[in-house]
## 1
Amino acid sequence: MSTIKNYPFYMRATFVLLALVLTAVILYLGQHIIFPVLLAMLFSILLSPLVARFNKKLRFPYALAVAVSVILNIVVISGIVFFVSWQIGDIANDWVKINNNLSIHYHNIQHWIKQSFHVSYSEQNKYIKQITKESLTNSTANVGTTISSFTDVLMNLILIPIYTFLFLLYKSLFVNFLYKLFSKEHHDKLKDILSNVKLAIHSFLIGLIAEMWIVATLTSIGYMIVGVQYALLLGVITGILNLIPYIGITIAAVLSIFATLTGSTDLSLILGVIIVNGIVQFFDNNILVPMVVSSKVKINAFVSIISIIIGGAIAGVAGMFMAIPMLAIIKVIFDRIDFLEPWGYLMGDNLPANQKTVKIKIPFFKKRKSSEK
């Protein structure tokens, strides 16, 4: 490490950038294998305290403690999926009402287009039929891709719990492997990195889960007060999508507005949805995120947004969700390696509480002022 530190800055910068680009390429090419493993690693960090409690407090054998923890995790996630599916089933029962509401909104939009742009109903219908025909053609062509994607999701649902179980079961094996990779003089630094990575990711995930439930509860209550149908379902969906920073809440708001349009013909409810989302997001960004999402690693918004966009380009929604935890791990490593420390500082949120204005002295005016005296 000291040898690399002695290299010129441009060589060290090139080394870091090449390493990051190579990592992105590997993640893109192997996303179907790597991202389930990474997600399982996050679950294993999240479940580690629960495993320790079963093992040390309740005297469970270690393998049994791991198995019970993973099963409980599966039960909780399955419960959320069952609740969402059950609520969607209720929406399906109201399909006749939804269809009527959509027809009313459709005719209102057609009338507005005719009045504003002087496009006749027949021309609008002709254009819509053309778009529908093209969409059906594209959908037919993408059937194979859709089936393949569904198969990948199903496979991941099976593999992620297995990976999580194995990560927890062989935790000491993986840790000892890392120690064997480095000489003894670096073991203290490696121990510091591992402990801080575990602490940062665990606190981040716990905070994220708490934030999800609080946002879901507040949004559901707000929608109920406004009078939005399917308020509970939309609140839970908003909480889940809020796990994707910056972008998820926008998607949730669009879905809520669409669901409101299908559930009622009253357009004033859309304003209520927007107000509720605005209030909840203000509370989330200014109170929940600083207090509840208590990650030990502070990452600035600029780097966060870029990493989320890159993660989405690499692996879609999974990449967007994994972007911040992976960035936190990278920052912990960068902060504790001498020649990478400046990059860790660049990623951080290190603005001083009271920024002082920089005063620029201009010699011309200084001399003029002194001469006037």
## 2
Amino acid sequence: MNAARGDLVAVTGATGFVGQAVLMAAGRHRIDVRALTRRKQRLRGGVEWTLGDLADKDALKRLMEGASAVIHIAGVVNAPDPAGFDEGNVQGTLRVIEAAHEMGVGRMIHVSSLAAREPQLSIYGASKLRGEKLVRASGLDWTVVRPPAVFGPRDTEMLELFRLARRGVIPLPPPGRLSVIHVADLAELLLALLPSSEDTTHHIFEADDGEPGGWTHVALAHAIGAAVREKPIRPLSLSPRLIALAARADRLLRGKKAKLTPDRARYICHPDWTVGEGTQPPRSLWHPRIDTREGLHATAAWYREAGWLK
């Protein structure tokens, strides 16, 4: 089933960081969207809102009605226990699949995570892999995208690094490498994958900014520092033990709002979160357009304007 201009696309997670970028990109491409939301939203051209969440089977069926494809973005990044990850990333994905079958939606773009590649490292990664397995066994016309670290305006996950950089010091995991991608580039990829083809169907793609070999932790820290201040910052590589202690402290201080959870501490200490060889989408279909250094500067400017970075 092809999703082209004029078709309706269902989107979960539309009010989140990546979802908002997808709605903006869909508007530019004149793709009509029906989006799932937990609370009432303002009217927006080209977007029809459906009240509900991943636990609401009736809402998911309303979301899918008449759609040619579904982009499943919603998921759980932080949870207080394994049950929270399972509900958001496994059971929620299963309900999306069931609703797609029931409403005759054959095409599914599933947003996973590079963490699924190393499921032994974290409950989060294991839950994302289990969600992927459900998609792959669904019988749908599926494509899975595993983004690396995603940055850009409205992001709250990397905001902490920008704030630390303002102070001149960025604590880092042990030496390693990672890939990153600007949220606008990721959104363009998700929409580019809507039409099914032999090159995209039943594939797992890992996409990044095109930086050869990814970024070292230190190089990315310096790039963030350059985006927020004139003087160089000081990267500070920490041991896994210190990061684990910091995660416990963050949980004590901020509770459920903690960004550095014990689960996250385990997988950020892994030395290689770069995209794999041969896992990128076909270049004829999509390639990154936003230079990361320029994107970091623009993100810092957005944070300042929004009052998030003082």
